[in-house]
């Protein structure tokens, strides 16, 4: 996957331009991660800030939109192309100012870009 694609929704993800994903449940291959707290785009790097609730001791994580496998507006879910452990192991998100820190965003994108490719689960 080219590095720039980590910052773009996959064509078959179901993403609609301008759609508000706030509040949707975020699901990894192996379970629920949390919910979309907000969406942001700085430096041409669109991403989701996901509130993990008590799962990761109440912290939030930043997820580049290229990690989104699918969006189901009816079911109100965003499915990621990774596992919960991979989300948890991503560079730590501490403050909102990091969403405007190019170096931090690059490190997050690099982390997700280096994850092994995953196949979509069989339906």
UniProtKB/TrEMBL annotation:
GO terms for cellular component: plasma membrane light-harvesting complex. This is PRC-barrel domain containing protein. It comes from the Bacteria. It comes from Streptomyces coelicoflavus. The lineage of its organism: Bacteria, Bacillati, Actinomycetota, Actinomycetes, Kitasatosporales. InterPro entries: Bac_photo_RC_H_C, PRC_barrel-like_sf. GO terms for biological process: photosynthesis, light reaction.
């Amino acid at each position: 996957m080219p590095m720039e694609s980590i910052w773009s929704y996959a064509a078959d993800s179901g993403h609609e331009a301008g759609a508000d994903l706030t509040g949707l449940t975020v699901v990894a291959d192996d379970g629920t991660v949390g919910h979309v707290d907000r969406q942001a785009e700085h430096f041409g790097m669109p991403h989701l800030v996901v509130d993990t609730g008590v799962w990761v001791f109440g912290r939030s994580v930043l997820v580049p939109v290229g990690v989104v496998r699918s969006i189901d507006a009816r079911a109100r879910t965003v499915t990621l192309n990774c596992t919960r452990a991979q989300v948890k192991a991503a560079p730590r998100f501490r403050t909102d100012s990091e969403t405007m820190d190019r170096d931090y965003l690059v490190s997050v994108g690099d982390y997700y870009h280096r994850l092994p490719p995953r196949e979509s689960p069989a339906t």
